[in-house]
Amino acid sequence: MGTLSRSAGGRKPNETMRLIVTTFVGVVFGFLIGVSFPTLSLTKLNLSSSLLPNVDLSYNEDQKSDISRQTILNAWSSTRSNNSSTKAQSSNGTGRIWVPSNPRGAERLPPGILAAESDFYLRRLWGQAQEPFFDMEFSKKNIDAAVKKFSENFTILLFHYDGQTTEWDEFEWSERAIHVSVRKQTKWWYAKRFLHPDIVAPYDYIFIWDEDLGVEHFNAEEYIKLVRKHGLEISQPGLEPNKGLTWQMTKRRGDREVHKQTVEKPGWCTDPHLPPCAAFVEIMAPVFSRSAWRCVWHMIQNDLVHGWGLDFALRKCVEPAHEKIGVVDSQWIVHQTVPSLGSQGEPQNGKAPWQGVRERCRKEWTMFQMRVANAENAYFKAIGVDPSNSTTH
């Protein structure tokens, strides 16, 4: 579901507007809310993901998939040691990626990873990643509570992947919302097709959120103030620390407004400026600036719809990432870990629907990591640079 504040078209060009856009995606639908400044602001929330290969996950009908942090960190260390895409600027400045011929906003990305065009092919949540798909009371209460955290200056987009749309007419705000309904698709599928950077260009910030977020301690207006104050291009609200979180970085701290770095267990962060100790947010509730989203949109792959891998790669879109990516502690949320997409799969070969979805997520994770690595290797070779002689960044 998405919500948009009043259109700028009806106001004078020089009139300052405040607009925030947020997106929630759940069992029933996705939700987007927008808030703007002289141009409009857009904010989005995402599912958690990592740029790591072959990581096993546990998943059941009562709980969302839980990632073994040690497994992830082992994989991450291996990835970083073999992935030239993480190489830093050499002394003559040729080690960083900057391609002026790329689409505007995506200059920091290697050409080989760009997905500059999209499509309307439906994508399956299970099976092979490139195969097209041809084929609620909890959610309602959650989304209603979330929408009410955003004033009428916000634009609301609702992404429905269960086909229900008119069922939301019981809420007054539903008449002001934009409803997009496509069955069994993820929020990243929607984002790639309906949130093109040129379409959301009037907005300053974009929120892309899951639907299972408790927002009792969240205020959208105050959140944007803190994001501006601390210069965050990519952010997320802090997460309630007593809910079995995977990462220390996204855990809320009660003694500050914002944090940008954390300390993990010994050996987990070989560089304090790299994920998961810095330059890192999860994909269940990310918030992007307009310029950061322009880059991230080009990095989202059309066929890798679960978004796994994005959270470790988002840092490629801002510089310096360890200063411009952070967690807002004083406006925090609760991740309620309500299973949703797993039930949208189909049983195959005797496996439960959620098992097929989990396997697809894991495959996408590996495929995205390899695509990024291959694209960056090709870029460096094309400009005559040996990334192995540079240091990581």
UniProtKB/TrEMBL annotation:
Transmembrane segments: 20-40
Pfam families, A to Z: DUF707
Domain of life per record: Eukaryota
Compositionally biased spans, kind Polar residues: 79-94
UniProt region (Disordered), positions on chain: 79-101
Keywords: Membrane, Transmembrane, Transmembrane helix
InterPro entries: DUF707
The UniProt record lists the keyword Transmembrane helix: yes
Record's protein name: Lysine ketoglutarate reductase trans-splicing protein
